[in-house]
Amino acid sequence: MTLSLAKNKIRKIENVSMLTNLTFLTLQSNRLSKIENLEGLINLKELYLSENFIEKIENLEELKNLEILDIANNKISDLEGIDNKPYLVDLWLNNNLIKNFSDLENLLLVPTLKTIYLWKNPVSLFPSYKETIIKYCPAITQIDTTYL
Known about the structure:
Blueprint: E1 2-4, E2 24-26, E3 46-48, E4 68-70, E5 90-92, E6 115-117, H1 129-136, E7 142-143, E8 146-147
Parallel strand pairs: 1-2, 2-3, 3-4, 4-5, 5-6, 6-7
Antiparallel strand pairs: 7-8
């Protein structure tokens, strides 16, 4: 089951937690500042939250079946809260506020990750940026638009 709530000027995630069979949810291009009220979505595989005002990856503990997480174009500064995702293969974080390699250390907790987008983050300006991601993500096959 899929649900698209994109471009609706939504300020708070509400009234979706009871949709336990939902596998695809997009809340792109809204006015969200917080990830919340998703704990009942235990079958969710794809979550799209790009182009909001989210500052922190949080409240995703129960979403263990996530395969794709898109939180691009937000205000994320670190990857705390990205752990416990045994099926996550795609992570889109481009155009956020991730500044340092230490902010990427939580990628070690996502060994299944195959694709990551981090361009347009301050950390992507470092010369050893891609090598560091490869070190943290041994299964990685794509960094930004580059296939390895």
